[in-house]
């Protein structure tokens, strides 16, 4: 579905990603792991069209997408839930969710999408008229995922969805991600919660200083403590 071929990204003079090759197969959950500053956000922001690779190619099927604008990339079904949720705190939950449907591909089926989202996250239905800034951290994360789902993604990219959440909330957020994937949405997941990410993903890549140093199935990496401690220090 999505392929990064030897993608190199600089921020000014800083090399953030070096010749990264990543494959996200349709219908799967792929995790991108690594410590702070490893290049995880740079990778998904490059897929979203926010950063332009200096070298390499990003392909969606046969189409090269690394020269497209973020808006064009959303219209192709690639949607990002950003790190830190980035909700509009003064708008209500429902207003935040509906903002996800600004793209053309989502407008026709808004009502059905909303019903589906409330079925995944009944708590958002209960809180739909609440001001988003007053939601708990976990509820805000759900709201950000809901806004992403409103755009009708084929590939949903989540940047550290468990960041700052209590363990029970992390569990709920991961359950929602698993359900969304089971219903056919491909997922690219950036996470620091390594064990949780490996237990849910089909395949994972480990980034270190902008380079992919390790990859394998979630199962394989989860049971390889030696590799995990060498590459992730856990
Ligand atoms: N806009 C920017 N300008 C300059 N340097 C940047 C910018 N964004 C990221 N970097 C640098 O690029 C490198 C990779 O950062 P990136 O945010 O992709 O890492 P990350 O793995 O997502 O880290 P974290 O888990 O802390 O979010 C880091 O050295 C970072 O300081």
UniProtKB/TrEMBL annotation:
Keywords: Amino-acid transport, ATP-binding, Nucleotide-binding, Transport. Pfam families: ABC_tran (PF00005). InterPro entries: AAA+_ATPase (IPR003593), ABC_transporter-like_ATP-bd (IPR003439), BCAA_Transport_ATP-bd_LivF (IPR052156), P-loop_NTPase (IPR027417). Belongs to the ABC transporter superfamily. The keyword GTP-binding does not apply. GO terms for biological process: L-amino acid transport. It comes from Paenibacillus naphthalenovorans. Gene3D superfamilies: P-loop containing nucleotide triphosphate hydrolases (3.40.50.300). It comes from the Bacteria. GO terms for molecular function: ATP binding; ATP hydrolysis activity; branched-chain amino acid transmembrane transporter activity. This is Amino acid ABC transporter ATPase.
